[in-house]
Design brief:
The protein is an alpha/beta fold. The protein has two domains: 241 residues, no CATH class; 407 residues, Rossmann fold, CATH 3.40.50.410. The strands form six sheets. The protein has an eight-stranded mixed β-sheet, sandwiched between helices. It has a four-stranded mixed β-sheet with strand order 1-3-2-6, covered by helices on one side. Strands 7-17-18 form a three-stranded mixed β-sheet, with helices on one face. The longest helix has 35 residues. The two termini are 47 Å apart.
Length: 727
Amino acid sequence: MPVRHEIKSQLAKLLATEDLIVENKKVETAEFNVHTRVLTLPLWDRASNNVYDMLVGHEVGHALFTPDTEWFLERKISHQFVNIVEDVRIEKLIKRRYPGLAKTFYNSYNELSDNDFFDVQGKDLDELNLADRINLYFKIGNFVDIDFSIEEMLYVNKVDSCETFEEVLDVAEELYNYCKQQMEEQETIAPTEGTGENEGSTEVGDTTIDSDGETSEEVDMDYQPKSVDNGPVLEDFEDMTSGNSGGEENIDDEPEVETAKSLDEALKNLVSNTGADSTYFELPEVYLDKLIVPNDFIYNRCQEEWKSTEEAYKNHHFYQENPHLIKTMDEIFENVDGEFFKFKKSAQKEVNYLVKEFEMKKSAGAYARSTTARTGVLDTAKLHTYKFNEDLFKKVSIIPDGKNHGLVFLLDWSGSMHQVMLDTVKQLYNLLWFCKKVQIPFDVYAFTNEFPYGDMTETGERCPVYKKEKNKADLPDWFSLMHLFTSTTRSKELESQMKDIFRVVCAMDHNTPTNYNIPQEMRLSGTPLNEAIVCLHQILPKFKKQHNLQKVQCVILTDGEAQPMRINKEVNRPWEDDPYLGTVYTSRNTFLRDRKTGNTYSMDKEWYEQTDVLIQNLKDNFPDMNLIGIRLLSSRDAGQFIRRYSGYGTDLNNKLMSDWKKNKSFAIKNSSYDSWFGLLSSALSSDDEFNVNDDATKVQIKRAFIKSLKNKKMNKKILGEFIELVA
């Protein structure tokens, strides 16, 4: 079974019980950055679950208990010796904190012993130095026989009794000096025994020392702490075992812990070096003032465009020759504006229904939370029952105040919306009129890649709208959020703005004849939904604070999937001194990391599922928020979309398909959204009045009546569920 690295990451975080970031990358050794609190784990893909869990527990032990000190500047001790003593201490402490890990350590070291990770099979353990035998004793002592003299047991007990890092240093220094002394004593005897072919060299244990004083094995005893950009790194098992005693230049004749080196090499063999390396990225800080197109700017831009249209009529040679055909602004928009007011009038029934449902559900919720308390005042109406009733006091019902709610809408302004944009805006207007009537604050943003708002450079490029750094999500150059509507606008001005947007979307609708232009930057574009969700991390708390809200609801209206996300990544190019900061698309080895919540999310999904990851991350940051999706679907797309969340032939699939066939709508509850409503795009219009021609037959009247009932049923069902979430 392949290793689930994200699960092992969660294990490490749970064990650490702190703000710890875990990365699984193609590295040979584990590293812990004490400043950034990032624990980097190798991809031990060839390790069993037991061994993997033990290694994770071991590294977390170092992260928790090994201090960030430059002890090697003051203490002349080999890092190998410090590490084997520290290993004993941190494993003791981590098992003390989590007793269940004791079994994991026992089973994993048994496995490492069976597979000879310490390279001791066939060797006489008594010939190993004391440090090696102590290392084996505390790691695999349950599975191999290791003998100690009475003098040596004193060191074993000292190692076992270490509780602080300072004690570790003291014991490691004693152990190092003892092993060095033993090694020197053996070297004084060895030359008298060397004859024949071995003359000129001396064997000490498994190490051959040449007559010129150099060993046949390359041993690097100099420790150089690894330099990283973000702070010091603590390394375990591998690199911490290399180094000598505090900077001594002469590395000859120094005692080593051969079993630690063997374990180091064996653990490297567990690391997978195939495939692409893991990439971890975070969401950037967004400059909302540069990215959001202000509400008044949008409508000023519309008026400018339409005034130019009026002037074009006047200046055209045809109309100069035929001035009686020149149309005023009011005449140009006469038909469209008439449709707007007609729709507004017809929508009042639906809005009133929403208001009624909201007030009922809000009252029911308040009543459910109410409590009854005695007042201490006698109820005179009950005095005659004193002989058999002890409850003679008046009672009062205490109804708690409801939470103050607000709504933020995200509207898809992509090219695929052109066929349904008008109907979508109509549904949006219904919800805005509802919010206005029940005094719920709201903001509406439309996401686009075509509005070049903000400061420009001398070369005509847009100034950055976010803090661009390596391993941060990228935002497209022209990505913007159009602030279409806000509840802070006065009612009369809001109606005028809604009328303007109605004009804009009517010009997009092929079924609505228009003879005017719309601003170029307000034309439909791509689908930067993911980028819009990134911005919500800053929009929602700002909106909440502005209106003094207790809870914020978010509604996303879209007809499709978002475009794939890109991240900023450094690329080293041979012809440049400094790395180039480019962009790459997220891949299967990409993970979203959130330092605020401490969560890591795998992006090993289809590109259209990345939105689910971002929504889940948003909800983890705002757990009291309801996030509602309204997905517009054609008849041919509904089945495929439903199967994504319900599978094939399941009970859920059958139920959703039944709802779709019956009502042309459904509500998905098992996605990242709290509720994801699917609606038939062609049935979104609120014009569900029962209208027939005067000469209609009985069959035609019947069909028209059934059709109006179906539309009402669909809207009421979906909107009723929506109101329940809001109330």
